[in-house]
Specification:
Blueprint lengths: L1 H36 L9 E2 L3 E3 L5 E3 L8 E6 L5 H17 L6 E5 L11 H11 L5 E3 L5 H5 L3 E2 L1 E8 L2 E8 L15 H11 L13 E2 L5
Parallel strand pairs: 4-5, 5-6
Antiparallel strand pairs: 1-9, 2-3, 4-8, 7-10, 8-9
Length: 219
């Protein structure tokens, strides 16, 4: 009788372990399915595709138009987002600082104006004039470019460097570590990345988490 009780106890414990293991595997499988179904954008080291988008002056702009550039600071941003607004002056400063050194800012508005009317084309023209944008401000009509890059927020930055005729991704993420107040910034991610490229040095921080508003997608 004693042996029977021990045998039953062992069976119950074993069944519990088996059930726990099976549940764990199911959870892992569910997580993997979720990850695999997510849209994948560029990673650091990938070749970024060129694009041809309409600028606020009505002209079509491509990365290939900038023959003398050494790379680009591609920033997905918009008009309405409070985070994007906080960064507008800093984006202008990045362009002024690095354009003549071969790394101009290329801003792209990825939002659908039917979802967020403040991000319409006419509103882009007015915002650029109001803030004194010194860089192209392009509209991602049809929302084909931002998913290719993997942008999820506004603003979301992709620093590219020209290598053998290709635009290679060197940094992805936020502009710096304090969107609220430029005076409280202690980590200048984009600035440090571009300075490193200019000096031919390794970039210490190649990827950070972009902080901002979600991109407004056509339904």
């Amino acid at each position: 009788m004693k042996n029977l009780k021990i045998l039953m106890a062992a069976f119950i414990v074993g069944f519990g372990v088996l059930s726990f293991t099976t549940t764990d595997h199911k959870a892992d499988a569910s997580q993997n399915t979720s990850v695999n179904s997510a849209v994948k954008g560029y990673e650091v080291g990938d070749e970024a595709a060129d694009f041809k988008l309409k600028n606020i002056d009505g002209k079509m702009v491509s990365l290939s138009d900038f023959k003398s550039s050494k790379g680009f600071i591609v920033i997905f941003t918009c008009n309405h987002c409070p985070y994007a607004k906080k960064y507008e002056d800093r984006i202008v400063e990045l362009d002024k600082k690095f354009k003549d050194q071969g790394y101009p800012v290329i801003a792209v508005n990825p939002n659908d104006p039917n979802v967020q009317p403040e991000d319409g084309y006419q509103q882009m023209i007015e915002r650029a004039k109001q803030k004194g944008f010194t860089f192209p401000y392009l509209v991602d009509e049809g929302q084909k470019i931002y998913p290719l890059y993997g942008a999820t927020k506004t603003p979301h930055v992709f620093v590219l460097q020209k290598e053998n005729g290709k635009n290679i991704v060197k940094y992805i993420g936020a502009i710096d570590n304090n969107y609220e107040n430029p005076d409280d910034v202690s980590e200048y991610y984009v600035q440090d990345a571009v300075n490193a490229l200019i000096k031919g040095e390794p970039i210490k921080m190649t990827k950070t988490v972009a902080i901002g508003c979600t991109i407004k997608v056509k339904k």
